[in-house]
Design brief:
- The protein has about 290 residues and is an alpha/beta fold.
- Helices cover about 35% and strands about 25% of the residues.
- It is built from ten helices and eleven strands.
- The strands form three sheets. It has a seven-stranded mixed β-sheet, with helices on both faces. A two-stranded antiparallel sheet has the order 3-4.
- Strand 6, helix 5 and strand 7 form a beta-alpha-beta unit.
- Helix 1 packs across helix 8 and helix 6 runs antiparallel to helix 10.
- It starts with 19 loop residues before the first helix and ends with a strand.
- The N terminus is likely disordered.
């Protein structure tokens, strides 16, 4: 699946605050699909299918789960964002499930608010853990990942595969200068806040894996261009990632939207669309 230019989205009142439900819909309708090439590349490499029992950390509104389920996998998604989980549930409820015997179906998808405490009754342990939310573009953005993995690994079989994802080198990511807006605005309002943008480092994913006690077993890079129908859609999609939240709290949403829009101008094409080539990296590990 190649990301396509998303349709136009506009607020009725640009000065009004954006509620959690609106931002979750912006993520689901605009931004989440930009990472679809990453999901598909990983699933193809690992031959995800009917024998896969996947636990996805930070599953968002469920696109990665839906793609895995379409390949026959049994999936469990966990997230702390209630609004995104609600959208994921709506997406996955339409999946017909797997045959569990005469007159019965077994659902392929399960969604949990937070880390599950146990494997569902009657289920085998997970053999694939994924953490697709990319790290490496903001200070401290990997701090919660190692503890989440430590909680999830005991639910998997010994030797289970674990996949981590991160931003690629900044020179390969056209979105990097746009993300720097968040750091600049935050630092101007709150000097030495320590929460700004930073360049992805070569060993970010390996460091997380080491802290979680995982053994790296291969890696890959995937092209994930960000394409939007117009600047307004691009701003909404990017702000839905949460990467600009600190800047919004430090200044205000209108200022952040304005400066992000200005940063997007180099990526504006003659037809009004926005196109930013990016590269993401993934690391395959053994638990």
């Amino acid at each position: 699946m190649t990301p396509t230019l998303v349709r136009h989205h506009r607020y009725a009142d640009p000065s009004a605050p954006v509620d959690a439900g609106t931002r979750a819909r912006d993520w689901a309708e605009i931004q989440e699909r930009m990472l679809a090439p990453l999901y598909e590349a990983v699933y193809e490499r690992l031959e995800v299918g009917g024998g896969t029992r996947m636990l996805s950390l930070g599953c968002g509104s469920g696109l990665a789960l839906l793609i895995a389920a379409s390949r026959g996998a049994r999936v469990t998604g966990v997230d702390t964002d209630h609004e995104r989980l609600t959208l994921a549930r709506a997406r996955l409820d339409s999946d017909p499930g797997q045959d569990a015997g005469p007159g019965r179906t077994r659902p392929r998808a399960r969604l949990v608010d937070g880390i599950p405490s146990a494997v569902p009754d009657g289920e085998a342990p997970y053999n694939l853990l994924t953490a697709f939310q990319p790290i490496g573009c903001a200070a401290g953005d990997s701090e919660g990942l190692a503890p989440a993995l430590a909680s999830a690994v005991p639910l998997a079989v010994r030797g289970a595969t674990v996949v981590l994802a991160g931003w690629g080198p900044p020179e390969r990511c056209a979105t990097a200068p746009v993300l720097r807006v968040a750091a600049r605005l935050t630092e101007s309002a709150r000097p030495r806040s320590g929460n700004g943008w930073r360049s992805a480092l070569r060993d970010d994913l390996e460091e997380v894996a080491a802290r979680a006690g995982l053994k790296p077993d291969g890696s890959g890079r995937v092209s994930c261009p960000f394409g939007y129908a117009d600047v307004d859609s691009a701003v909404r999609g990017l702000l839905s990632t949460g990467l600009f939240d600190t800047a919004i709290r430090a200044t205000d949403r209108i200022q952040v939207e304005k400066e992000v829009a200005e940063a997007l101008h180099p990526h504006l094409r003659p037809d009004g669309t926005v196109w930013m080539p990016n590269v993401f990296r993934y690391l395959v590990c053994v638990a």
